[in-house]
Each structure stands twice: as C-alpha cells, then as structure tokens.
Write a structure and sequence with these properties.
The protein is mainly beta. The chain starts with 11 loop residues before the first strand and ends with a strand. A hairpin with a 4-residue loop joins strand 32 (about 380-390) and strand 33. The protein contains 1 helix and 56 strands.
C-alpha cells in the first residue's frame, strides 16, 4: 500500500492512493473540517497502539484491519506485511514479507479472517493483483480465487464464504472456502448495485453484504446472493454524508463507516439510519488522519486503522459508570486577599463526553476537568458534578483550606554582607517586607545600628517588621575594609622606540591608591641600547595595607633604522681603446669599507653590485653592433664591461651601483663610474642619462 499522498494533510485525496494503486484514479476533493471536535455519544476511546516504522507493533500507513471470533486484531500496512495482536494491542506475530512471490506482499489493502482462523489478504499492484490465504499461524497456504482486475477488500460470512471486492473491476466476487467461484455482481456506474471504485466490504451476522462505494460516496447493502437491498449516503460532511468512505464493518446490528475524507467514523443502524459520528482531524485520542479501515467485534469494540497517524485506535460502545473525583483535600497558604487554587477532577471516569461543573454552595465557580479559581482565607467545601453525554452523573466534594501560618518576609536590598572600602561613603540600601496576607510592610520596617566608613571593622544593621501576629528580624553585616590594590599608570609612551646606540631614560610609573594616595612604582628589567630587540620593564607597587597592584609593563623596542655606509675610493677608470673587449671590475676595485652603527660585522665582503647602467643604448648603430656590453657575475661581486661607445656620440658612461644590507634590512648604496671617451683626445665622456640597465639578482 502506498501512502495516500506525499503530505497526509493534502486537501486532495486520490482513490488510487487511498487503497492500493487502482488503475483508474478518481480525484475527490476533500475539505478538512478543522473546527470540528471529537464527539463520543455512546462510544468512548479506550486505547491506542503503534508508531511509525516497520518493527513489530509499528505501522507504515495501516490499510486494512479485521477481528476474529476471539477478539484478536489483524492489520496489514504499507510495510508489506500483516500483524496479529490481541484485543488490547499486544503483538502476537507477523506474516508475509516484501516481494511478489506467493506469501509476499507489495501493496496489501484488505484483510479478513474465517471461523478457523485462516487469513485472507487482498492486493492490488501489478504483478500482485491477487488474494492470498494464510493459516491461523500466518503460514502461506495458497493464492485464492481470481482472476481479478484490482481487488481492494475482502470479507468472510458465517459459512466461511469469501467475498472479494474487485474494486477496479467494479464488482464483488463470491467464493466458497475452497476457492470455488460462486457468483459475481456489480458493474461501473452510480445506479443501484453499481460501483465507482469501491474500497471496503463487510458481512454481518445475517450474511448481508455492505460495500463502501467510495467514488459514489455511499454505502450499499446486498444479501448473500448479491441482491441489492438499500443504500445510504451522499457527498458531503454532514451527518450521514461521506467524503471518500474507505472502510466498512458490521456488528451487533450496527454498521460502522471509515469516512476517510472527513477524518471521522460514522455509526448507522443496519438499515442505514444515522446514529452518531465521532472523530476529527488530528493526532490526539479520538482524532484521525485519513482512516482507511475499521473493524467491530462482538463485544462492542471498534478498532480503527488510523492510517495517516500510523496507529490503531480502540473504542468501546460499552457504557462506563460515571464516577466523580474532585481530588484530594488541599491546605493552601494565604497569598493575599484571594489565593489561586487549582481544582483537579481529571481522575473522574465515565463513558461518553464528560462535563465538569464546580460549585461552592449556590455559586458556580467554573467548568472543566481542571479549574483555576481564587478563594479568600478560610475553609471552603467545593462540589464537583460530572455528567456524561451518554447519561448519568456523579458528585464529589473537596475541602480547600486557605490559611495564614507564615511570618512576614524581609528581603534585603543589595548585598549581605556588604563590603565598604575605606574612606568611601556608605549608604544603606534598605530592605523590603511583604506578608502573604498583609501585603507590603516595607514602610513598617525599623532599622537599628550604624556604620562608620572611615574606620575599618565589622558593623551590624538590624531590620525588624511585624504583621501584628508574627515578627521577623534580619541582620545585615557591613565590613569596612581596605582591599583595593593600587593602580599603576605607566608614564610616557608605551611602547617606546629607541634608536640603536643612543641613550634610554625610563620615564617610570606612578601607583595611585584610594587610601595611600600616589607614590612611585618600582621598576625591574634592563634595556641594552646597543643591541636591537624588544625589552620589557615591569612595574610593581603595594599599598601600606599590603594590597599588591597588578603589574604593568613597558615595552621598549631598540631599533636600527640607520642604513649602512659604503665608502668608495673615487676611482673612475677609463676604457681605451674601444676594441669591443670586456674588462672586469670587482667590488674591491672601488669599495674601501662598509660600516653600520649596530651591525659591526658588515664589511666590504657584504657589498654586492645591485645594478649597472649605460648612458648609451646597447646597440646604438655606431658601436660595433655588439650585445651584452654589461655582464654581471652571478655572485654580484664583479662585472664585465665592454670597451666600446657610439662613434657618433659623446662617449659612454657606465655607472656601477653598490649595495649593502644590515641585519635590520636597512640598505646602504654607493656608485662608481667607468667611462669610454668618444676619442682619445676628445676629453671626458659626457653622461647622457640611463639608456640601458642590467640588474643583479643578489640580496
């Protein structure tokens, strides 16, 4: 059995989803009656069992239900199996399993039990369009009867004849207990004896047959030979009307109908006279979500397959005597002019719908199984009257005593004990006083005792109040103490920055104390101004009472921001003649020293050539058409310069840039030049600006 629709609360049910994927889907609009309530006139809720799942005692959309002569209950569901329970819902065994082999189920939708305990289960899903027979132990016996177009229910009469409701075939097929076909009746339509995808079938003790003619929203009654007798019901939600009636059962002269679309059960005489309905949409006791089948037993019990809620609900038509129970007598402390008391009559019992009325003398206090009411001080005798919609009532008294046995309560404002710091002002935060009956007594509080906030010590304030009968005293302890530590303020900037090889003077720190005033804090820690790094000076202080201040720190950063100095010898070599040959120059040809105020390890060996430039293009057209005129060594310690120049120019100037980096990343630079004159007697080469650059890759 597939579940009805993806959402159980959908406003549109499909007959094909109501019971086993019928070939023809008949859409029936269903308007949920949200405002209705469960009505139990002579039928009362007894119990329920089942939760969602496929374990023993669980259900996955129960679709068919039956009872045997012993009152045992049989259920098939979308979990592709059947289960047997006793009359109180205790699990006995399961039978069948998922699949299409004999003895297995895909979409079981109906179930019946004969006098010998044999079980018949109908299915309607290709390829399992069939009725299966099991013995009383749940062991598969045989496939029964057929062929069928699409069976949707099964029932057994007192002679163990089997009636198969072939819903898709719009007919009833009757067999004897051996499976021999006896007769058929029914056809598609809305006339007497015709059907529109019927979903439920039942047989009464006189072997009359009742069919839930789902698509026509009615019940039809036939005799055992299939002769039409009568019908009742139209489409709607009023008494005696149906919206997709899905299951039917007959017992003790009554006919019960699972009115699935209206989420209720209706009870009729066996001639179709409406008697009562019960149930509403929901998941509470006596509420339903698309009930698809039901079964009534000979003891007056009605079992409902509450399909959308995955459970079975049990109801009874047996009358239960009304017994009122007003609960235990109560003694309640006075809470003012009136005191709230909860009256509880939920232990009362009885069948039908129970109503509860609470009275004191001639005064009605209210209604309901529980009632919150307000009573003045004193003793009250309250009567509970419980009446049943099925007839009968009962009374019970409960005695409620409202008493005043408590003294006033004093609540101190603020802390207790209180701590006052030396030399701070003290203000009594006071107190409030209340009494359960007398109310607010704050203005009646008397305070004795005093506090000197300038003298360390313990003091007691006493608060006293009376309600006329009871007196309450509460003490507050006030401790004047010096517990506040000084607060250290670091003078000057923090953090401080000091340049390497300069001087550092600590600005110090000041401690401030509420009692001791201001005084210098002591410092610990040193700063080495000759070594770059981060240094910490810690300041501490304690006041005369021994309260230690939280240490404060100053961060001193000794930094090196001065670049190293490269000293060159002033050499400016001249290359002649312009023979296009390389001449090598090293760092040491020009650099005589490299020094740094902090990084004393620097020297000439730390200097590299970072770039070399030429004031002429690499190939100017009149310089011999050579390339790579500047060739910088991989270690950046030397460079090869080609002796050439533009014959039409004013000479070539090579400029070498030297770089050295100290440990702090400061970079010092210097330059030197090498020239190639235009001619031997033309005078010095003239620097025409950078036209060609070679950059080194050394750090």
């Amino acid at each position: 059995m597939t579940r009805r629709i993806n959402s159980r609360m959908s406003l549109l049910f499909s007959v094909s989803a109501l019971r086993g994927r019928l070939t023809r889907a008949l859409a029936i609009s269903v308007f949920l009656i949200v405002a209705s309530v469960a009505v139990f006139a002579t039928i009362s809720f007894v119990s329920k069992w089942g939760t969602s799942g496929t374990g023993n005692g669980q259900f996955f959309t129960p679709t068919g239900i039956a009872v045997d002569a012993g009152g045992n209950v049989y259920v098939v569901d979308g979990g592709q199996r059947g289960q047997k329970f006793d009359n109180n819902g205790v699990f006995q065994f399961s039978f069948g399993s998922p699949g299409s082999l004999p003895g297995q189920f895909i979409l079981p939708n109906g179930i019946a039990v004969d006098s010998a305990g044999n079980i018949y289960v109908s299915e309607n899903n290709d390829p399992t369009i069939r009725v299966s027979k099991f013995n009383s132990s749940g062991v598969f016996v045989t496939l029964f009867g057929g062929p069928y177009v699409g069976p949707s229910g099964v029932a057994v009469d007192s002679a163990d004849n089997v009636y198969v409701l072939d819903g898709n075939g719009q007919r009833v097929r009757k067999y004897n207990s051996s499976g021999t076909h006896l007769l058929d009746w029914g056809s598609s339509g809305a006339g007497n004896g015709q059907f529109s995808f019927p979903q439920g079938i039942a047989v009464d003790s006189s072997n009359n047959v009742y069919v839930a003619d789902t698509g026509n929203n009615r019940i039809q009654k036939f005799d055992a030979a299939g002769t039409y007798i009568t019908q009742w019901g139209t489409s709607g939600s009023s008494d005696g009307q149906f919206t997709s009636p899905d299951g039917v059962s007959a017992a003790l002269g009554y006919v019960y109908v699972a009115d699935a679309g209206n989420n209720r059960i209706q009870r009729f005489s066996d001639t179709g006279t409406f008697i009562e309905s019960f149930g509403s949409s929901g998941s509470g006791d006596g509420q339903f979500s698309g009930p698809q089948d039901l079964a009534a037993d000979s003891a007056g019990n009605v079992f409902v397959a509450d399909s959308g809620n995955d459970r079975i609900q049990k109801f009874s038509t047996a009358a239960v005597t009304v017994v009122a129970n007003a609960g235990s007598d109560q003694t309640v402390e006075c809470a003012g002019a009136t005191t709230s008391v909860t009256l509880d009559g939920t232990a009362s019992t009885g069948s039908g719908t129970l109503t509860y009325t609470w009275t004191e003398g001639a005064t009605t206090l209210g209604t309901g199984a529980t009632l919150l009411t307000a009573l003045p001080t004193g003793t009250h005798t309250i009567k509970l009257t419980v009446s049943s919609s099925g007839g009968g009532s009962d009374d019970d008294d409960v005695i409620i005593s409202i008493v005043d046995t408590q003294s006033p309560a004093i609540n101190l404002n603020g802390a207790n004990p209180m701590t006052v710091e030396c030399h701070n002002a003290f203000s009594d935060p006071g107190a409030t006083a209340t009494d359960a009956c007398a109310g607010d007594l704050t203005s009646s509080i008397v305070v004795t005792g005093s506090v000197n906030p300038n003298v360390v010590g313990g003091y007691t304030l006493t608060y006293t109040v009376s309600d006329g009968s009871h007196t309450t005293m509460v003490n507050r302890t006030v401790n004047v103490i010096d517990t506040i530590a000084p607060i250290i303020t670091v003078n000057g900037t923090n953090p401080m920055t000091v340049e390497c090889h300069t001087s550092f003077t600590d600005p110090g720190a000041t401690a401030n104390d509420g009692c001791a005033g201001s005084f210098p804090a002591s410092a610990s820690g040193t700063v080495d101004v000759n070594v770059p790094g981060t240094y910490t000076i810690v300041y501490n202080a304690s006041d005369p009472s021994g309260n230690a201040a939280s240490p404060m720190t100053r961060t001193v950063n000794v930094v090196d921001t001065t670049a190293p100095v490269i000293t060159v010898n002033g050499n400016a070599p001249t290359l002649w003649s312009p023979n296009h040959k390389y001449q090598t120059f090293s760092v040491t040809d020009f650099v005589v020293s490299a020094t740094d105020s902090c990084n004393t390890s620097l020297g000439v060996g730390s200097v590299v050539i970072s770039k070399v430039t030429s004031d002429e293009f690499e190939d100017s057209g009149a310089d011999g058409h050579t390339l790579n005129d500047i060739f910088l060594a991989a270690d950046c310690k030397s460079v090869q310069l080609r002796a050439e120049r533009d014959g039409n120019g004013d000479g070539r100037v090579y400029r070498i840039t030297f770089t050295v980096t100290d440990a702090s990343g400061n970079v010092g630079t210097a330059t030197a030049i090498v020239t190639v004159p235009q001619s031997q007697d033309s005078g010095p080469a003239i620097d025409s600006g950078v036209h060609y650059t070679v950059t080194g890759s050394c750090p």
